[in-house]
Design brief:
Oligomer: single chain
Helix content: 25-40%
Number of helices: 13
Strand content: 5-15%
Radius of gyration: 23 Å
Structural class: alpha/beta
Distance between the termini: 57 Å
């Protein structure tokens, strides 16, 4: 009787590839999800995905041949692990086997409570090497590590787990992560050129992510084409002096953005085609742009925009207006916004938060 191993390598490769999470194409051209979390994209339940992940792990232990064929597919997707011990074990593996990090295509890092110091000397040595390299880059640029950064790297903080992982996975294409501040500290400029899709959420119910906190990532990954942030909080133009020419889809959920920051966003992504925005509340920030600000910034900077989709969340726009003093001003501003954008050929949809059709 013929053995499975006796089949042609090409056929065995096809069998193994069928268990890989990234085998399914997007359901439609405008799919901007992170593939690992979109059932429509995968066409199966998440339990099926987990079963396939276990199948790949089992195949790696079957024989040397299947280990060679299945390992790269096993590392294509790093799931959100259940415990900090698993994360540090994974980091030790990636530090001691740098070739494995080359296979990673998707990272899912949402676990909130990380252990703040490495469990393994190999990881500790790698961390110190990365800190020294970061210090050297700062000195070369005429700066230095801030007191906060020095304290973070000496005592430990959750974000350096993300920084370590991304520095070991230069070919990653999508990242979903929960952030607590500045991240991606160990990624030099242009070192994550394969990264296309990112989705970030803030760790707390107050405050939010700002562009400055993503500076390291934006410098490292110029090819990002899709970005989802929840929530985003920024009042002023921070003058990042960066441009993401390939970013065409931006979604800011439960966010607070000032008029100046709106200019910043449009300047960052001059080729933006789809902009989705949901208003946040006072827990996120202190300033929300008005419809007139959105109209001005969009017409001045968003030359490629074809769709603007707004959800009025907890911080509704009409709260910015005193209806007793200026009755009808809010409604008139929305009508003017809609007309101005449509005249430019931009589809404009403004819906209340309860309407989930957006």
């Amino acid at each position: 009787m013929a053995r499975l191993q006796d089949l042609p390598v090409e056929l065995l490769t096809k069998i193994v590839e069928d268990f890989c999470w990234c085998r399914s194409p997007p359901p439609h051209a405008d799919c901007h999800c992170l593939t690992i979390r979109c059932e429509a994209h995968l066409g199966r339940e998440e339990t099926g995905l987990e079963a396939d992940y276990e199948t790949l792990a089992a195949l790696c232990l079957t024989s040397r041949l299947f280990n060679d064929l299945a390992t790269k597919h096993l590392y294509h997707y790093i799931p959100d692990l259940d415990s900090d011990a698993q994360w540090w074990l994974l980091l030790r593996t990636l530090v001691t086997r740098r070739d494995l990090g080359q296979h990673v295509r998707s990272l899912d890092i949402v676990t909130r409570d990380y252990k703040t110091t490495p469990d393994y000397p190999e990881v500790e040595r790698y961390l110190q090497d990365q800190v020294k390299a970061l210090q050297a880059r700062r000195v070369e640029a005429g700066g230095k590590l801030s007191p906060w950064e020095e304290r973070e790297f000496s005592t430990g903080a959750s974000n350096y787990l993300i920084s370590l992982l991304t520095s070991l996975c230069p070919n990653v294409e999508s990242i979903r992560a929960r952030l607590t501040g500045d991240s991606f500290n160990f990624c030099g400029a242009q070192t994550m050129s394969m990264l296309k899709k990112v989705a970030f959420e803030w760790y707390d119910t107050e405050g939010g992510i700002c562009l400055a906190g993503l500076r390291n990532l934006l410098q490292a990954a110029p090819s990002i084409d899709s970005m989802i942030i929840s929530p985003f909080s920024q009042e002023d133009d921070d003058k990042l002096d960066l441009t993401l020419n390939k970013l065409t889809y931006l979604e800011l959920r439960h966010s607070m953005v000032g008029a100046g920051a709106l200019d910043s966003i449009y300047k960052l992504c001059p080729n933006l085609e789809i902009f989705k925005y949901e208003t946040g509340d006072a827990c996120i920030g202190y300033e929300q742009f008005a419809p007139q600000d959105l109209q001005r910034a969009t017409l001045n900077h968003a030359r490629k925009l074809r769709m603007l989709m707004m959800k009025e969340g907890p911080g509704r726009w009409e709260e910015l207006y005193d209806e007793h003093l200026h009755p009808g001003v809010y409604e008139d501003a929305l009508v003017e916004l809609d007309a101005a954008l449509k005249a430019r050929g931009i589809e404009c949809r403004i819906t209340p938060l309860e309407d989930e059709s957006v």
